[in-house]
């Protein structure tokens, strides 16, 4: 265990030191890209954190390979590096992803170019043998080498994009990765202890160095963030998470295990999905939403889960903690199957689900109470209930907009035709639509905007 911790510590130190350097260089030379419409932050922020994380991973893996045997006088990771082609392929694929991510962060590549780079990186992994050979469902073997390669590429690309999709709040991806991979490390470590390979395997080592890289990067990414990991960091995180999961699920046969070895047969296939539940859910909803609207599944929008939490009324900090909580509940629940009876796991998951759901939906209940108080006060049926509310809370934005729409005069048929013609011919002159008469103009209600709201509207 201590050598896993040493690898994680090396990754964390290198990642932190280079994150500070990347932040200073990015600030000095103004390497921060322009703020996009879907972004939550309001100040341009460098997105070079992925480079620092990649350096931490590389240094830690090379240290475990070349330096640890000199320190311990025993090559504990001998079996991990017995096939160096696997490790070299992982580092090469990570380098491809980081280069593409950095170029995208600086110059905004189109989605087809990014997808092509992801497929190349995933194909390199599969070509060098880091691939799904069997599925841990009764020892089911994949039919052919071509099918194995295709499934591996699809799995890696899916996980990379799923992780990248949730990278929208300060500290979100790094924190979720630490929690999820912490759970997965415990599982892979226990799994290795029951196998012929001892306590050292590739999945546990990759997971440890990834946790270290995220720990070193997180201090500069915590809200308000001074540095973002960008697409380079998010795609790198997804690549390594997928690689560690494939290293476990593709090389064991849970049919040969039982409760005496503390490994239920379904856990190897369930846990990788459990630790990725939040990214995969957001990815699935985004693809469904965009395809149903006739758009590309990789087109950007501002309807991700973290955007919805902010729109519900959560603060930036609370939204991140809610993601952490959901990830921990689902991942820990799956891990507990290794150690405790099933009914204890079900109880833990039920309690965690209720608590997380209550925290997630809390702003809606608070909003309903404020709206009911405002409506009751307007009807004159109660005492001044709004006396304890701040000025922005005295009004409901939806109600005010509805009143203004009701009071505004309905445009004539000629005016509607003028607007429709202008929309069909955007290159022509702007239409001249008569303004609303002063006698019909509704009174402007007090503004609901606040610091957080202005930040979200600009994101």
UniProtKB/TrEMBL annotation:
GO terms for biological process: cell wall macromolecule biosynthetic process; cell wall organization; lipopolysaccharide biosynthetic process. Pfam families: Glycos_transf_4. Residues 406-459 are annotated as: Disordered. Its cofactor is Mg(2+). The keyword Transmembrane applies. It is found in: Cell membrane. GO terms for molecular function: metal ion binding; phosphotransferase activity, for other substituted phosphate groups. The chain crosses the membrane at residues 6-27, 48-72, 84-103, 115-134, 146-165, 172-192, 198-220, 227-246, 266-288, 317-339, 345-364. Its main location: membrane. One of its GO terms (cellular component) is plasma membrane. Keywords: Cell membrane, Magnesium, Membrane, Metal-binding, Transferase, Transmembrane, Transmembrane helix. It comes from Frondihabitans australicus. This is UDP-GlcNAc:undecaprenyl-phosphate GlcNAc-1-phosphate transferase. InterPro entries: Glycosyl_transferase_4, PNAcMuramoyl-5peptid_Trfase_CS. Mg(2+) binds at residues 164, 231. It is a multi-pass membrane protein. Residues 435-452 have a biased composition (Low complexity). The keyword Transmembrane applies.
